[in-house]
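Hi R.,

Here's the chain you asked about this morning:
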Amino acid sequence: MPDLHSPKNTVFYAIFEDDILKKLKDPEIVTKTEYEQVSSSLFSLHVKILEIISPYVTDYIWQHEPFTLNPSTTVAPNPKLEKIPCLHGNTRFGTHYDDEWFIVFLLMEISKKIPNVSIRVWDSYGEFLLLGYISLKLYRMGKNRVFIRGGEVILVHKDSMPLDATLVENLGFLTFYEIEEPAPYSVKLAVEGKISGYPEKLKSNVHQIRVRVPVSVAMLLEHEPCLISLAIEGFCNRNDVELRKLSENMDTFVKSGEVSDEGVKKEELVRISVRMSRAMYVKLVDQENFKAPKCYPIPPKTDSSAYVETVLGMKLTYGFEMMYQKSIRKGKGEKGITTLEAFKKSLKKKGYFKGLPSQAAKYRVLEQKAQGYFAKSSLFSREREVINAPVSRVDEILSLPHAVEEFKGLDLLPSDDDAWLYQEDRRLKLVISRRGDDIERLESQATGSSSDSEPDNRYIPDGFDSDFTYDDFTDPFNDLYTEYSEEEILMLKLMGVDLSKDGGKRRKPRNL
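And the predicted structure, written out as tokens:
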């Protein structure tokens, strides 16, 4: 069964450039001198990639975490590097699989625009580019044999490289021999089907609504709209009794109003327009059994428009309070956004400036390159930093002067029609998406862990060399299987898989 130590519902990715690997004597053990040579190349590659994906991700609303890349090179004490130089990252997508496939689309676009890169992508369950279309037996063919290259899914066959070949050896095969071995046609069709419609369907996945919220929440969403995902997640995951008690008065966001004779705060609300993904909207409206806290003024149902806007705003405000209190409890409030000086200090520690004095001309050239890189990369990394450590940013925004009058008389966009929510095919997709929640609960019961637990970053791989075992699927997963196709049987034999050990059942996972 999937590796239960890995963060659940998380996609991992790593991008390796041919030219960088060709410069190294041993990509697995990079000397300090070699690091100085490849670090600049990694920065340049990162900037190219950011320019490629920027038009797609600028307004994209992530369910949990954004797509982020970081250079893997760090100097070890020996002083040698113990990682293969690459750009890597990971994104938690929860049950919103659209985020995962959007990332595949981004990686495909990168590989089309930069043909001399090999890209690894997998998730908590392993090689998901194949899962559901090719037998679980494929995972026994060896690790790190599935890549994206030149806009195609590539498999390194056992006839090309031994089954025990390492990631470095498989990358070397792709880099030096430049032989591309496309995945079976069924895999190609399946992946293309998942990412077809991008980038056009990015717009159709957005839902805009009007809500009535305290001015503090309006300020927060004006400055950091990315935090809406945390608010909705916080509201939907209200199973922590202690957090509910801390949040029910909404002290962080509802505190400026008058107090009634009964001692209850009366907050004046402002009307704003907010964007979220359709999946987020489904979650928000689906949570009906929730009694509004006394501090939040709810209009009568006879005023249907105001009532709906206020209830949705109340849910967001409560979600923000849950997010804030949960982040404080988990100690996620101290880390601020990375500054240019902190970035330069980190580079200096890694040897990027080659020990040059700050007055040297070559030092200034390297410094300018670093500043340019930071300016472009920080636009993407700051969103992740805000999401991972929201408290300090929330406090910073709430400390700014703000008044109700700032949000009065605004020309707001109307709420989008949500008729799509009630169409039968949409309901079916919603049921299917909830299947992921069922699997999470089954795993939680098996391990005794909470389904609402945060991912433990200690177990996140470095962007490569993952090892997930599929030999031990348990009974709750049995209905996920069907039979192999004839094409897949030929594929398995080509990969050196012994089907006789499958008990003659010839079963494979069914696409969810």
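The radius of gyration is 25 Å.

Let me know if you need anything else.
M.
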